[in-house]
Amino acid sequence: MSTHLTQAFALVYNAHPASRQIPYAIGQFTVNELCHEVAFRTMSKETRAKLSPTSRLSVSLGSGVIAGFAAAILSQPADTLLSQINKGHGPKGTMLYRFGVLARQIGFKGLFAGLGPRMVMTAGLVSGQFLIYGAIKDGARFLEIFSSVYLQIITQSDSDGCSTRRGDPQGVDKVLDLSNYVTITQR
User: Fold this and answer.
1) Angstrom distance (rounded) from CA 187 to CA 177
2) Which of 35, 94, 109, 146 has its CB surrounded by the most CB atoms within 10 Å?
């Protein structure tokens, strides 16, 4: 790698702390979505449709915990090296050179020192974040369904004898067929 490219990489990496979070974020979102997909793929459509809110919460929490473990494992080596550099350890030179020398000095085992407590902490934080993320996704789905049904109502023509624009309650029953959008289960 050329000296200019290395210096540019070091400048961007040091200037924007958020850039350090990119691999962490990509890893946790990828693993979370993969865990959801695997969990729901193993269920039949009927089972998925009948899942209780508690079961859905369990899938979300489990996926979030696994994503937190993955995020901790992905970010631990880089954070260990950055800690060492911030403490003033390692040689002078480009950032990549310093990372390389420190990684050889610390060794593979040293890069992952303290991973257990970090996994517990990160799993709790990430699973909480993904519960919020799941609630936002569910809200977006609700808005999508609501807007679709609303468009059906306002674009309904008068040709079938009902006009929802004039407030005909029987017309709403004819227009508002939610069977394609929601599953209603009786207890």
Assistant:
1) 21
2) 35
Average pLDDT, the chain: 77
Closest CA to 1 of 84, 111, 9: 9
Contact 48, 24 (CB under 8 A): no
Strands (E), 42-169: none
14 vs 91: CA distance, rounded Å? 17
Angle at CA 75, nearest 5°, toward 19 and 17?
Answer: 25
Mean of pLDDT values over 9-19: 56
**What gap in Å lies between CA 170 and CA 69, rounded to an integer?**
54
Q: Does 60 map to a domain?
A: yes
Asked if residue 87 belongs to a domain, the reply is: yes
